[in-house]
């Protein structure tokens, strides 16, 4: 009897403990930025408090939580949160991290990053709060907004560099200075339930940028932005992008690859169950002339497009330059690409463009169950192709040009 009572009261104690803290914090050390002197008034610089909370958490022997409390705005400058850490780390963003609006707070060395996580193993960032890049001042001073201004670099809001076993979940990322989230040189990445937004006119605010990373999954995200919703760059291998909503923005892009005669490798990318609204592109692969390497084993499937300017596009003559790009012999080879179950409307008449290189033609392109019409039905949707070897499976409308033309 006595032992039953003991067990019973012990369970009560455990229950009480579970109720009094977040489940995720059980058994962890919690390092709140408030305990390290942060004010959270949105004006005072809380960078040092965040850095100190991180350092304490990172040197903890037990799994640690860095807490950004709810209901407050913590203003920070450029900050590097570096590993390796002694144990796993959870950064729980319940309130908001707000970037300083002073451009002079960045130096030449730090200008590419606002919050940079570097070399961390077993890192989770979540909490439902927001990461606010306060980007207005950067957009106003961009040469893409005002061509009289010199082109300068601007920070990426959230960068994960050399991280392994990374989870980024349930966050709002808003108004980034430039790229919103960048994943670089990382392995084993899960990103989900992210709500990412910046105005349609904000320059270069790519939603999620992935490079030199493998085994990455991006699921259940909503992205509204001024540039690519996702840019999938050189060195991406084994990527799944699933259940996404994109627009406004420039769509889901692989590339641009092979700029400045560089070598690029992208393989095994699946983009599945994506809706795009009013984007400039839908499913896109873009490469510069003169590059080397490949983009292969790529699937774009189950996509619904509404009023998308270029719904399906492979462009091997990509040229985002103020001067025309010259003809070059080499190119990043594009092969084994499946566009399957894609339907919706195109804002332009060009619904499908397979524009491949004459020296390195695209091959293994399959179109399966594709139906795209021009928005409003004012004209028939068209397609154009050059140097593309493709086949179809099931109905495809509009059908690309035949191999011979
Ligand atoms: C391709 O990538 C997926 C993740 O999207 C992975 O599960 C699968 O094993 C990869 N396939 C190969 C052949 O590596």
UniProtKB/TrEMBL annotation:
- Write down the EC number: 3.2.1.15
From which residue to which does the signal peptide run?
Answer: 1-23
Q: What is its main location?
A: secreted
List of catalytic residues: 250
Q: Which reaction does it catalyse?
A: (1,4-alpha-D-galacturonosyl)n+m + H2O = (1,4-alpha-D-galacturonosyl)n + (1,4-alpha-D-galacturonosyl)m
- Coiled-coil stretches are none
| GO terms assigned for molecular function | polygalacturonase activity
Indicate whether Signal appears among the record's keywords: yes
Query: Which PROSITE patterns has this protein been placed in?
Result: POLYGALACTURONASE
- The top EC class is hydrolase
Instruction: Say which domain of life the source belongs to.
Output: Eukaryota
Keywords from the UniProt entry = Cell wall, Cell wall biogenesis/degradation, Glycosidase, Hydrolase, Secreted, Signal
What is any one GO biological process for this UniProt entry? carbohydrate metabolic process
What compartments host this protein?
Answer: Secreted, Cell wall
In which family does this protein belong, per the annotation? Belongs to the glycosyl hydrolase 28 family.
Can you say what this protein is called?
endo-polygalacturonase
